[in-house]
Specification:
Radius of gyration: 21 Å
Largest sheet: 7 strands, antiparallel
Number of helices: 4
Distance between the termini: 48 Å
Strand order of the largest sheet: 1-4-5-6-8-7-9
Oligomer: single chain
Mean pLDDT: 85
Amino acid sequence: MGVFLGYLGWTLPTVGGSLVTPTLAVLLVGAGIAGTTWVAACFRPHRRALWVFAVGVGVLTLAASVWTLEFALPASLAWQSSATHRAETLLTRLRDEPGYAHGVAPLQPCTEVKTGSIGPLPAPYSECAVWTSEGHFVSFDAPRGGLTYTNVGAITFEDQCYRHLVGRWWMDAPESSGVGACPFGYRFRGGG
């Protein structure tokens, strides 16, 4: 049961999306199974085993809900080592370009990626690498939100909703309703 709820919590969250909906889905599925088992136990002669099972499912449901809300997306990104390697490769290429280390922007800072994925973000998305004296980052952006690999943290996100995932990885999301109104779990950083 725990594996099923954990898998559900792994697949439901999306980059840039609210984390409340997938967490509630995991919570409701687990609570439904636990509640059904509890009610069934009331009509059985050997109730104790079913009650223990129902309580166990309840505990696993709470653990899977926390996993979904806090750890599923960071784990998905961390376990996909190709995401960090890709971001660092793009930054190394920029650092080594003549003139770019002195603040000259490349002619084509962004490219469109049509297939594949970067961690939990499926294509299509754009990848944009920036290297300045203030910091450097690579953003992987889609209309529904994106991932950013940065060495300067939250400063990267001016007038955006953001959430730290793991290490140098951050996630951004579009505002839900008006300036500064971020989905649950995200923060807003005003700026420029």
